[in-house]
Design a protein that fits this description.
The protein has about 200 residues and is α/β, with parallel strands linked by helices. The protein is about 30% helix and about 30% strand. It is elongated. About 30% of the residues are buried.
Length: about 200
Amino acid sequence: MTRLERGAAAVLWLGTLGACSVLPSPAPPRYEYLVLTTSALAAPVAGGVTVAIDDVRLPAYLERAELVTRLSDNQIQFSPRARWAEPLSNAVPRVLADDLATALAGSGVRVVARGGDADLALDIAVDQLEGPVAGPVRVRARWSLRRAGQRALAGSGQLTADEPVRGPSAETAAALSRLLVRLSTALAADVRGHAAATPADPAAP
């Protein structure tokens, strides 16, 4: 290669490098951040039988930030844009506790924080909390109820319920919130049935 050819090749290489350096950077992804909402909160009550949600178990695939949709019985997909603003492992127990307190309003049963000296304790396994993109979304859940200081179950139950979805990802979050209200209503019915046979702890605040 002659000196002239080498110079021309160098100019061409520098020109290509310069063109690459001015190409626009790809736009960062834009996410939608979703939250679960509670029903209207009931006024706190004093005294009476107490109940706590001791444990809420979710499938591992719901521990991710992405919104999950179900393609078939054996296939799911993760949304490229829709994200939960907080882990569902935090949101679901909190929303259920608030919804349960509302469902138990006026029953003489009070929801207290986990880890306290509750008269009744709930363990909940949520096996499904998603659905197809176009809906309906579904909750499948099982629960057990224990009295304080007893290993034997006082009661147990299960619920499968669907809610229609009427729009984009935010509507999916709203439909899932409605499903948690329905689950808390079923939990409240079970709790009320056993609270009548459970003496309140006189030391409870």
